[in-house]
Write a structure and sequence with these properties.
By secondary structure, the chain is an alpha+beta fold. It is built from two helices and six strands. It has a six-stranded antiparallel beta barrel.
Length: about 100
């Protein structure tokens, strides 16, 4: 199954945050189609390779509700979420978007 959902990303640098949009594949955890909001990779380089890069988080939004999750970046800059994080995201998102309290 190839189910992709739109997500937003917050790429945290030491003194700044770069916003981006992408698609999360809910079957594999891969993140594709990265598009930066107001950030020029030609001039400033890829954020994940900068010395001031700290971490990346993602947000899945539906009907005004958000679920945040950790994003992994490998050495080549490929974004994904781990299998455990993906399972937790699916569980939390299903509960939140159904209007139920998320399990802890």
């Amino acid at each position: 199954m190839d189910l992709k959902v739109p997500i937003t990303l917050a790429i945290e640098l030491t003194d700044d945050v770069i916003d981006a949009r992408a698609m999360l594949n809910l079957a594999s955890g891969e993140i594709e189609g990265l598009a930066y909001d107001d950030y020029d990779t030609e001039a400033d380089g890829v954020p994940f390779r900068r010395k001031d890069y700290e971490f990346t988080s993602g947000t899945l939004t539906s009907h005004g509700r958000d679920v945040e999750f950790k994003v992994d970046v490998n050495g080549s800059g490929q974004l994904s979420i781990s299998a455990n994080e993906l399972l937790e995201l699916k569980t939390r998102a299903a509960a939140l978007f159904a209007g139920k309290p998320a399990p802890r």
